[in-house]
Structure formats: structure tokens, C-alpha cells
Amino acid sequence: TAPELLRNFSIIAHIDHGKSTLADRMLQATGVVQPRDMRAQYLDRMDIERERGITIKSQAVRMPWAVEGPDGAVVHALNMIDTPGHVDFSYEVNRSLAACEGAVLLVDAAQGIQAQTLANLYMAIEGDLTIIPVLNKIDLPAAEPERHAEEIASLIGCEPEEVLKVSGKTGLGVPELLDRIVEAVPPPVGDPSAPARAMIFDSVYDTYRGVVTYVRVVDGALKPRERIEMLSTGAVHDLLEIGVISPEPKPSGGLGAGEVGYLITGVKDVRQSKVGDTVTSAAAPATEPLAGYQDPKPMVFSGLFPVDGSDFPALRDALDRLKLNDAALTYEPETSVALGFGFRCGYLGLLHLEIIRERLEREFNLDIISTAPSVVYEVTMEDRSTHTVTNPSEFPEGKVSSVSEPVVRATILTPSEFVGTVMELCQSRRGAMQGMDYLSETRVEMHYILPLAEIVFDFFDALKSRTRGYASLDYEMDGAQDANLVKVDILLNGEKVDAFSAIVHRDGAYSYGVMMTKRLKDLIPRQQFEVPVQAAIGTRVIARETIRALRKDMLAKCYGGDITRKRKLLEKQKEGKKRMKAIGRVDVPQEAFIAALGAD
Ligand code: GDP
Ligand code: MG
After folding, report:
1. Alpha carbons 297 and 305: distance in angstroms, whole number
2. Which residue range or ranges hold the Tr-type G domain (predicted)?
3. CA distance linking residue 13 with residue 19, whole number of Å
4. Which atom of ligand 1 is nearest to the CA of 170?
5. Among 321-335, 406-420, 443-457, the least confident range
6. 274 vs 232: CA distance, rounded Å
7. What is the pLDDT of residues 233-281, one digit of tens each?
């Protein structure tokens, strides 16, 4: 297809404002998906995406759309890239935007602009994309399209009349939107006669087809059966198949400048097709790579342990597989006294963690337990040595001079009546206010610097419940700052239980200690002797509970009695033994640790 007939765009929006639903209607309106094949969230291909109703991976699909020209109808090729909305996955949005010239900025007509609307809009503006403002869900009785059109217009600097109004549910306004995309989004500019350069923006492993690589061709063209070269490594592969997704992969005669599509080589390993790399022709290679992407850095760490120790190799294999198309996931082996062999894993955020955990359980059938999430701390000792700590149990011993923790720049959008309660919440989470803007008389944008550790747990839930669901949050990393942080250890009969060590602010140390000691006291079965459960900062005990010893007469119950009962008891004990972890002289069923980690 000639570049002037191409339009590459993506849909950006706050989560749940209707991207995937609108994408469905576009697939239908352009005839790419026949009515009988239609299913909701067509492009969300992973089970977990469909069930949770969220998009995790970006998807690219090509749709034909005819518009009337002076000499009759002209068929254009629209490439739509659906993107995830959650903050954890904003690097995916960035990657998608780099492959587009335009962005449909979708806003729920009942809710108006939300925090991720702004974050995504700024990303699109930074990428120099043409923005098409659209209000969605105008079928809703609660929709206020006029009011929100004004807000959007004043935000992006256009007329309120220019804001399109659609319903992804009924399909109303969708053909007009497609017309507007053709009219307003500029066609891609690239040099068709230059050596081929194509940007890899995603690559996935498909059981039947091997590695499928998604590319956007910038200059030149790629042809079927030619030999291609990966610019970063110089590796050369045969191009077995090349084509477009519409909505399933369709081989084509090649991809020209500006086109978006997929390619398949004989390669079996996704790592050979690195996201951000430039693909060129081996016969006439380009010399300059395209500007790549920055690998996302994990922000939150936690230990993952198989409940059944013999699953350790299976867990390793599963992580290897997930890592293939998830550059943000990191892991290395870790051993815990309480939980055995496992991995220390790094994630983009809590949702990412949850999704990895769920995929391990569902796709790989593994039973796993994860330890409390932790952020990355930089610890400086009095002797000037420094340590990077992602695991509280590895917090250095000795004289600490300072500890710094990552902080985020958070944007919170809220109806003005909740400003006070949002401030209270942020203050209780050690936030520092940076400023406040009124978007309109009733909507306020608040800026805070907050420790990441305070955000990753339940901040979002707390914000939602205090504002009856009306406030929204977006954040980006903003370096690190020193804080008064201490490590709290939990001791069982004087022995440290590594999985429960935590790095907390000094003001929160006592309540963490009280909570964990109580919890463990309730969960750990009585022993023959009295067992103290303590929380300590260094050698100083800050909380204590006691598990009282079993009474003699209770022990006596186990003797005598009828023989079958005794045998049963013995068998039960044997089974239990497998899972017992010895912390010093105390035998603890692993289940107790798991329950203590899992409870809220
Ligand atoms: P995404 O997170 O932006 O991809 O949002 P979804 O497309 O998954 O939509 C979120 C929710 O809004 C779903 O329950 C949709 O059924 C609903 N929804 C989407 N578009 C419309 C619309 O135009 N009207 C109505 N009434 N509901 C919609
Ligand atoms: Mg979606």
C-alpha cells in the first residue's frame, strides 16, 4: 500500500473508558470481523485479559476504510494499535505510540478526564502525534457530553465542536470517527527507496508458528523469502512469512515504508527478536539503527516460592517462558529458611506481580506463594560502603548512615469536594504536596511526591474508597530520597524468620511488629515448650507474643486409645513432616507461614 493511503493510530484512554469496546466496533464497521465471529474484547487474546476485562499486551490490526474522494471512493489502510491502560504497563503504550502518527484520545462521557487520560495525552504530545478527541459512552444516561467536551477542548486547545461523540456499545459515531482518522492523521513519512529499516515493537512466541515479530517499517521495504538482519546483533535469518494482522495473520507480498505488520523467521527463541531492535535487509543493510526503546525497569520485588518444593525446576521453566515476551520481569534464585528454594522476582508494579502469579498458577499449574512486595533501597553505611537492597532479609548488618527509597511524582484527579480527604491520605502516606490546578470549577489536579513503597500496597484502593471511586491516580518514577527507614525482623524462639523481615518507616515499625507477632502466634501450633514470637529492630525488641506450651494432659491424649486412630494420627504426622520447616527448635508447618504472608 502506498504510504499516502496509510494511517497508523492508537487509542489512548483511562482504564475502562472503552478502548477495547471501541476497537471491537471498528473491527465490525470495517468488515474485518464478520458479525458471526464477533466476541467482546476481540483483540484481548489472553484468557486473563478477557476475564479481568483489561488489556495487558498491545495489539496491532489492519482495517480497510474507504472515503469518498474527487474521483470516487479511495480505500485506505488503517492500522490500529490497542494499548493497555494501567500505569504498570505504560511502557507498552509508549512503544505503541512510537509506531503511530495519530492517537484517538478517548474519554468516558460520564466520567470526564481522568489521571491516565492526562498521562497518555502527554505521552502522545511528546511523540508529536495528531490527537483526535473523542467522547465515548454517549448512550449512558449519566453522560454529560457537552460539559466534558468543553473540558477536553480547553485541555488540548481545540473547539468543543471538534470533539467527536461516539458509543462503543451501540456503534454510534464510529464511521464518522474512521473518516476523521483518515482526514486528520497524517500518512507516515519514510523513504521507500532507502535501505529497509523496521522497528520491532513486540514479539511473541506462538506454539504453532514459532516466534512472531511485530514491526513497523520506517524506510524501504521487506519482501517475503529475503534474508533479514537484526541490526543490534548482525544475526541473519530467512524471512519465511511476512504480512498483516486483519484480524488474524494474513501473509502479504511484503511490507513497505510506513506499514505495520508481522514477520516470521525460522527462529525459535524470542530473545533473537528483541523489542526495540531494527530489522533490515541482509542484501542491502541499513547502517543506522532506529531509536530504540528503553527497557522498563522493575520497581517492586518479591520472593516466589513453590508450595511444593519439588516444583522448583518447573517454576524456573515457567519463569523462563514468561520472560520471553515480558522484558520487565526479572528473577534470580533465592533461598529462604521459612519457604525453601524459590526466586526473587522484579515487577513493574503490583498488578504486574498479580498477573505473573496468576499466569504461573493457571498456565503452568503451579502452586506458589509470594512474600511481601518490597521496593529497591539504597543503604549507605557509616564506613561509606553502599548496598542495593531489594530483599529486606539482605539488609546489611552494622552501622547504617542513611537509607534512600524510590519516590514517585503522582497526579491525582478528583472532584473538588474530596480535596481535603485526598490531602489527608497523602499526608498519612508521607506525601509532599507540589501543587494543585483547577481543571474546571469542580475538578482538581493535585501533584504529590510520594514514596513508591507507600503507593504499591493499598494506596489506590484507599484513594478510591475515600472518594467514592471518583478520584484517579497516575504516577511516574521521580528518583529517590532519604527517609528514616529501619528493618524489622521477626524472631521465633530467638531465630530470625527471613521471609517476614520488612523495611518500614520508623513510625510504622511498631504497628508492623505488633501485627506480625499476633498473626504468627495465632497460626503456629503449640510446641512442647513455650515459644516467644518477637519483632525487633536490630537487637531491640519492639513487640512480643508468646505461644504457650502444650499442656501435659493434651499430650497424654495421643497415647492409648484404639489402634486405628493411632495409625491415622501417625500417617497424618508423616504427611505433615514433609512440609514442616524447622526454625531453630521450632517445627512450623509451611501452611502457617503461607497463611501469615497471605492474610491482610
Ligand atoms: P478499556 O479498559 O478502555 O479497554 O475499556 P473496555 O472497552 O474494556 O470497556 C470498559 C467497560 O465499559 C465495559 O464494561 C464496556 O462494556 C463498557 N463500555 C465501553 N464502551 C461503552 C459505551 O459506549 N457505552 C456503554 N454504556 N458502555 C460502554
Ligand atoms: Mg482494554
Report:
1. 22
2. 4-189
3. 7
4. 23
5. 321-335
6. 9
7. 888 999 999 999 888 889 999 999 999 999 998 777 767 777 788 999 9
Which-ligand-closest: CA of 57? 2
Cα–Cα distance between 555 and 551 in angstroms, integer? 7
Mean pLDDT of 273-294: 85
H or E segment at 212? strand 210-219
Q: Considering only CA atoms, which of 277, 305, 312, 435 is closest in space to residue 368?
A: 305
**pLDDT at residue number 239:** 93
Torsion of CA 177, 179, 181, 183, to 10 degrees: -140
pTM over 0.80: no
Angle subtended by helix axes 459-466 and 419-428, to nearest 10: 150
Could you tell me how many residues make up the chain?
Answer: 600
Cα 106 to middle of ligand 2, angstroms: 12
State phi, psi for 30 to the nearest 5 degrees.
Answer: -90, 0
Asked whether 165 lines ligand 1 (CB < 6 A), one says no
Whether residue 16 is annotated as binding a ligand: the answer is yes
Q: Is the dihedral of CA 190, 193, 197, 202 positive or negative?
A: positive
- The burial class, CB within 10 Å (0-12 / 13-18 / 19+), for 206 is exposed
DSSP SS3 for 586: strand
Amino acid (one-letter) located at 546: T
CA–CA separation, 168 and 187 (whole Å): 25
45 C-beta neighbours (distance < 10 Å), count: 13
Q: HSE on the CB side for 238, CA within 13 Å?
A: 3
* Residue 137 among known ligand-binding residues: yes
Three-class SS state of 190: coil
